[in-house]
Amino acid sequence: MLSRQLTGAVMRTLEPWQAAAFATYTAEHRDELVEFLPWAETVVDEDSAREFLQRYADGLARDERRLYGLYADDGRLVGGTLFRVFSTAASMCEVGVWLSAEARGRGLVTEAVRAMIDWAMDERGINRVEWHCSTTNAASSAVARRLGMRLEGVHRESFVHRGRADDVEVWALVSSDRTAA
Ligand SMILES: CC(C)(COP(=O)(O)OP(=O)(O)OC[C@H]1O[C@@H](n2cnc3c(N)ncnc32)[C@H](O)[C@@H]1OP(=O)(O)O)[C@@H](O)C(=O)NCCC(=O)NCCS
Q1: Please, what CATH class does the domain formed by 3-180 belong to?
Q2: Closest ligand 1 atom, CA of 98?
Q3: Atom of ligand 1 nearest to the CA of 110
Q4: I want to staple 33 with a disulfide (CB 3.0 to 4.6 A). Which of 40, 123, 136, 141 is the partner?
């Protein structure tokens, strides 16, 4: 899956050659993203952006990770989605997301992740899709709920970020949930 047309946006792979643009994007939107995204703190210039994107490019080559940008119709990067973990051996993956503030509230991420779930389960035979988010991240929990995921539990103080140890909700969708729905 290299590219997918969504409503008013395109989802396509975000790659190391785009490091300069990604560094600029992160600098411009850091304040909107940094509360829940460690990379929004560590991507500070073109080199650190390339390192981050290269990790995902290497993961893609090994079929273990994937990273996509979400581009508005005018070509601007407005968010992204990722398979933070992708394991055919374990038949599971974990999805992550972000949107610039201007792109929120339109269902863009829900639509994008639905396409990723369809691809992971229908084309790749993945059985379980996970979603992890801080218990304080209501917008993120709402996406998981909207996607039909089930809240399975909370990992206590498992997300240490910016001097805070947040409890983390683990949501998941398994193949049999879809056939039951
Ligand atoms: C998490 C995050 C991506 C959610 O963004 P979002 O815009 O709420 O998510 P979606 O794109 O799915 O849009 C859902 C919103 O659009 C609305 N919407 C409009 N049309 C819609 C449609 N066709 N389908 C679904 N939702 C729609 C929903 O009602 C919802 O708005 P509401 O929360 O006011 O009810 C965003 O808050 C973010 O980037 N946060 C910072 C980074 C972050 O926390 N990432 C997750 C780490 S775990």
Answers
A1: alpha beta
A2: 39
A3: 12
A4: 40
